[in-house]
Structure formats: structure tokens, C-alpha cells
From TrEMBL:
One GO BP: glutathione catabolic process
Region described as Disordered: spans on this chain: 233-258
Keyword Lyase set for record: yes
Record lineage: Eukaryota, Fungi, Dikarya, Ascomycota, Pezizomycotina
Name of protein: glutathione-specific gamma-glutamylcyclotransferase
InterPro entries: ChaC (IPR006840), GGCT-like (IPR013024)
Record EC number: 4.3.2.7
Biased composition (Basic and acidic residues): 238-250
Pfam families to which the protein is assigned, alphabetical: ChaC
Organism field: Aspergillus homomorphus (strain CBS 101889)
GO molecular function, one term: glutathione specific gamma-glutamylcyclotransferase activity
Domain of life: Eukaryota
PANTHER family reported in the protein's UniProt record: CATION TRANSPORT PROTEIN CHAC-RELATED, GLUTATHIONE-SPECIFIC GAMMA-GLUTAMYLCYCLOTRANSFERASE 2
Gene Ontology cellular component terms for the protein in this record: cytoplasm
Length: 258
């Protein structure tokens, strides 16, 4: 296991999280849908990154109430420990140039008054193939431009949900992890929460919105491939909808947090 991991637990297995947050409050790191669909009751949203992981759309979305069906499951992201990822055949490996394997996202602070409620909410939301881990999160001031990643702020221990390679939803077949195969699955998958393509576009737009340095080569390459499969009009409409959805979601959650 990589050095970035501080611990893990299975969702709903009690109150282990309190060992990592003795004051009763809670920090949660989001690298996927949590970036644009924050948890309830947060009072701080901080951009930043974790080290030692690589983000990939290598988790099968088997839940029928999201962006796929049991017959045609979609694809969602997980983060994979760099040490294990390096043993896998990944055609984009040469583009992962960060020596620390940086994954950008957003961390949310949940006050103690709502921490238990939000923890249980996230367990239900993320339970399909994900387990809880605790890892250092590095907050950054993106207004510093090129030096954003050189932040001197102290790391914050965050809870993060990870789809481990040992879980049944992880793409074990190397052929199904090929970028073009993943893009084709995303382009045709749809569930009760909408199209799988929208999830991809929402992630790309959300990462762009975090600030300089937050782009992800795996995500941007998938966007390019999906656009090549879709019509120009269709992809443009879905991207525009993704931008509107992000603005509305963050505005609504920000108003709730005030």
C-alpha cells in the first residue's frame, strides 16, 4: 500500500472516523462528483490535492439509480494508489509526470453538529464499491498562480472514498481499461441521474474551475474521445448543461452553508 494512505474502513462499520477527527468535526475530500455536488452542511470548501494517487474512470457504475443500468453499467472515477497503478498497463502512463502523483479536488469541512449525519449520508451515497480511507489533503491558494501547488499550508487529514482494485466494480480486464473502450461506454450509458457523458463533462468543468494546475490528462483525453463519438451539437449542448449544473449546484450549496 502507498504511503499516502493513513487508514481505511468499510462504510457503515461503526464510528471509526471519530478516531481521525477527535474534535467531532469532519473533513471530506472529493475527487469526483463531490466536487460539483457537495455534501450537505459544509461550512468550508477548499481546493487542493492529495498525493500518491492517480485518478481513473476504472470503476464500473453498477447502481441503476445513477448513470447506468445493470445491463449497461456506466463508468465513474476512483483513485488508485500510485504504487499499485505502476504495475498496471496504462497507455497514458507516460503523461503522468507528477513525481508525487497529485490528484486535485475539493475538501469540505463539516462542523461537529452535523458530522455524524453527513458521514452516514456519504456512506449511503458512496457505498457501491467504495471504502473509506484517510489521507493528507494539501489546501492551496489558487490565486498564487504557478506557485499554487507550493502552498505552505499544513496538510489536513481527510476522509476519502476509494474504489479499491479488490472490489467487484473495479475494471480488472485491461482491455476494458483502454481509453477508447471507456469513452465508448461513457458515450452510450445513461441512468436515472442522467447521461454518463454529463458526469464526465461535469468533472472536467469542475476541475477547470478549481484553478491552475488542476487539469487531469486522463479526463481531458476521455472528453476528446467522447466528443469524437458524439455529434458536435450534442457534445456542445451537454457541456453547456454541465456548466449550468455546476453553477446551480455550488450556488445552492453555498447558500445553504451560509
Amino acid at each position: 500500500m502507498g504511503s499516502a494512505e493513513q487508514g481505511s474502513e468499510t462504510p457503515t462499520d461503526g464510528r471509526t472516523w471519530r478516531n481521525y477527527f477527535p474534535k467531532g468535526d469532519l473533513w471530506v475530500f472529493g475527487y469526483g462528483s463531490l466536487i460539483w455536488k457537495p455534501p450537505p452542511h459544509y461550512d468550508q470548501r477548499v481546493p487542493g490535492y492529495i498525493n500518491g494517487y492517480v485518478r481513473r474512470f476504472w470503476q464500473v457504475l453498477s447502481s441503476t439509480d445513477h448513470r447506468g443500468t445493470s445491463e449497461n453499467p456506466g463508468r465513474v472515477v476512483t483513485v488508485i494508489e500510485r504504487e499499485f497503478w505502476e504495475t498496471l498497463d496504462d497507455p497514458l502512463a507516460h503523461l503522468e509526470i507528477s513525481p508525487t502523483a497529485t490528484v486535485w479536488g475539493a475538501a469540505y469541512h463539516i462542523p461537529a453538529s452535523h458530522a455524524e449525519e453527513v458521514h452516514d449520508y456519504l456512506d449511503v451515497r458512496e457505498i457501491d464499491g467504495y471504502t473509506v480511507h484517510y489521507t493528507p489533503f494539501h489546501p492551496v491558494d489558487t490565486s498564487k498562480g504557478p506557485n499554487a501547488e507550493d502552498s505552505t499550508a499544513f496538510p489536513i487529514v481527510c476522509m476519502v472514498y476509494i474504489g479499491q482494485p479488490t472490489n467487484p466494480q473495479f475494471l480488472r480486464d485491461p482491455a476494458r481499461r483502454e481509453q477508447q473502450d471507456v469513452a465508448e461506454v461513457i458515450s452510450r450509458s445513461q441512468g436515472q441521474s442522467g447521461k454518463n457523458t454529463e458526469y464526465l463533462y461535469l468533472l472536467e468543468k469542475s476541475l477547470d474551475g478549481l484553478g491552475l494546475g488542476s487539469a487531469d490528462v486522463h479526463v481531458t483525453d476521455l472528453v476528446r474521445r467522447v466528443k469524437a463519438i458524439e455529434s458536435v451539437e450534442e457534445s456542445a449542448a451537454e457541456e453547456a448543461k454541465a456548466e449550468r449544473d455546476i453553477e446551480e449546484a455550488l450556488h445552492a450549496s453555498g447558500a445553504e452553508a451560509q
